[in-house]
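Continued from yesterday's entry.
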Amino acid sequence: MFAFIERRTLEHIERVRKCLSAIATVTPYGDALNERAEGHDLSRFGPEERIALTAPPEQHLATAR
């Protein structure tokens, strides 16, 4: 299960990077967008967010109440 979540998250990060890089070529804010593209969602693999990504859905519901 975690391998699926990790793969899906990495695919999402790559899609966002490609989109931000494409937009960066047509805006005066290109440098800032390229910087954001490099760091987008890397926190997902930190200890706090990694736990949230792998927790069962019922645990999320319990903490949301």
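--- second protein ---
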Amino acid sequence: MLKQVRFLNSVILIYLGFVLLSSCSSYSAYMNHEDHDVFHYIRKVDHNPTKKSYQDKLLESYSSARDLKKLQIKQAIKNEGKGDRWKVVLNDLLILQEMHDKINASPAASAVILDAKDYSSRITKVREKGALEYYELGELSLSYGTREHAQKAYSYYIESSNMIRSYKDVDAKIVEAKKMGTLHVVVNSVNYNNYDWGHYGFQDDYIQRKIVSDLNARSYVFTKFYDLKSSEISDVKIDYTLNVVIDRLYLSPPAEHNDVFDRVKKVKVGETRSEPPKPIYETYKAIMFVYERTLFAEANLFCEIISEPSNRLLYSEQFPSEYNWTKSWGRYTGDQRALTSSDWVLINNNQMAPSDNDITRELMDLSYEKCIQSLSHNELFY
């Protein structure tokens, strides 16, 4: 029961997000040039009540806008499909109603437009018609009993509730359609310990948990991802299984290359007392030993999606990655005054190579990023 309540709450939150987005989107997007002219000249007349040219423009633009809206409403009712026709009509009526409200709020504008019509009662009737038609479309789609039709039903129920909030039992219908329309995907663990190279510090469910978390964060409306330990998995019918396999992991042994360089530097330390004086040089000598170590590693992440219960392969892809590491350091014998600034950089370098765990994690992160990008755009989840 608790799981069902949690599911209900999550669906209601998603639904409220749709409703909030719809209510926040202004019908001004549906305004045409004539509509903008009306509001423009309402402001002009309001600021300059006695200017005749503004009055004439307001009268002309309002008449033109209202006639055009009437024609658009007539065409929408005739040509648009069920539900959608009333959505178009509603937007036009809301614009006309805003014109009415703006005109009545301005003494100067209301003195010019004497017949600004109040559309509030008609708006209510249109909302009722739209809510009913969208609701009926949702009922019809839901009756087919397929996931695809349930997803359509969900959209229709959302539109119905946008017309009239909580119309009939539409809130419950939204939850029902969402549940029926959701695709359930289980992500299996990688099980690193199956391989002779060991797990390199990974837990079996490391990539599994990342995939589940990252894909669920993508906010798919009709897809839910689970791992095998999820408390919700026992309550759903699994549609797809997503398998991730590391089928190659190679870490090369360190390769080393050594060089020896003689360093000789002559430095002026003074001058003779002869006329003319001659420079006196001192020669410093050192031997510089330079070591270079390289590592190479590569991995391949294999991903596949299997349809349940048919066991049909729907998707498979390889995600290779490479890692290269090179480090140089040095030591010297002799007089340090013979050394160059580059020699000191090498002498001070850290000789520590990355651990096998660090290299493997870098490879896995590179392959994983390719994998998650591919999965995120996979049409199977939309």
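The chain has eleven helices and six strands. The beta strands are 183-187, 223-227, 240-251, 255-271, 279-307, 312-334. Will compare against the first tomorrow.
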